[in-house]
Amino acid sequence: MKGNKVILIVQEVLMYVAQAPYLLALIFLFANVDVEGFVGISLIVGMISNLVIFPVVIVNAILAFIGIFKGLKSPIKTTMIVKLSLIPWYVVNFILGFCFFAAALNPFLLWSIPLVIGIMVCTTFMYMISTNFQVYSYVINKLIRREIRIDALLVWSIVLSFIFCLDIVSSILLFYSENKLNKTEGEA
After folding, report:
1. How far is C-alpha 118 from the geometric centre of its chain's CA atoms?
2. Which of 30, 118, 161, 175 is deepest in the core (most CB within 10 A)?
3. Per-residue pLDDT tens for 83-123?
4. DSSP code per residue over 143-183
5. How many helices (H) and strands (E) does the chain have?
6. How far apart are CA 129 and CA 136, in angstroms?
7. Where exactly are the transmembrane stretches of this chain (predicted)?
8. What 3-state DSSP class applies to 85?
9. Crossing angle, helix 166-187 and helix 76-85, to 10 degrees?
10. How far apart are CA 151 and CA 156, in angstroms?
11. Is 94 helix (H, G, I), strand (E, B) or coil?
12. How far is residue 179's CA from residue 77's CA, in Å, rounded to a whole number?
């Protein structure tokens, strides 16, 4: 299903687009320039553009769920490429999270620190997991059809896909595992 790859790439592009207003707000804050409330407007636009990503994530989840029963072409290579290309997004996201945390250190805003951290961690985790939906679907389909067996590498790569930063390692492990499996099938 070509739509699965397209939705994954659309999600990646939207993630970068949603991050741009936050970066602009941060640049204007550090430059100590606020052109007619531009910083506030940028933050609001960033929040709205993040809300636009949620339907894309839901469509991605639905397509992945359908893929469990229909079967998919291997999304592992595409997922690995997307994960690797999202490394700058995760770095900037961490910097933005730190800046929002630092901004909440004002004595009147201390109550908001758990909220800021919670929102940043939850949205980042949701984006991280959603880029793996198709891989989970593919692996479940292959396990149901008994085309692959559970081995240590598969288990580790699935477990690592739920941990920040290590999800990228997991996509590389899955890619390596799939290539190794394809080579042994070709020799047999």
Report:
1. 16
2. 161
3. 999 999 999 989 888 888 888 888 888 888 898 889 889 98
4. HHTTSS---HHHHHHHHHTTSTTHHHHHHHHHHHHHHHHHH
5. 8, 0
6. 10
7. 7-31, 37-69, 81-103, 109-129, 150-176
8. helix
9. 150
10. 9
11. helix
12. 10
Low-confidence ranges of the chain (pLDDT < 50): none
Burial class, 159, CB count within 10 angstroms (exposed 0-12 / middle 13-18 / buried 19+): exposed
Q: What is the pTM of this model?
A: 0.81
* Distance from the Cα of residue 166 to its chain's centroid: 12
pLDDT at 104: 83
How far apart are the C-alpha atoms of 45 and 26, rounded to whole Å? 13
* Residue 78: how many other CB atoms lie within 10 Å: 18
**Inter-residue long-range contacts of 64-69, CB under 8 Å, 24+ positions, other chains counted:** 64/4, 64/133, 64/134, 64/136, 64/137, 65/137, 67/1, 67/4, 67/134, 67/137, 67/138, 67/141, 68/137, 68/140, 68/141, 68/144, 69/141
CA atoms of 1 and 3, how far apart (whole Å): 5
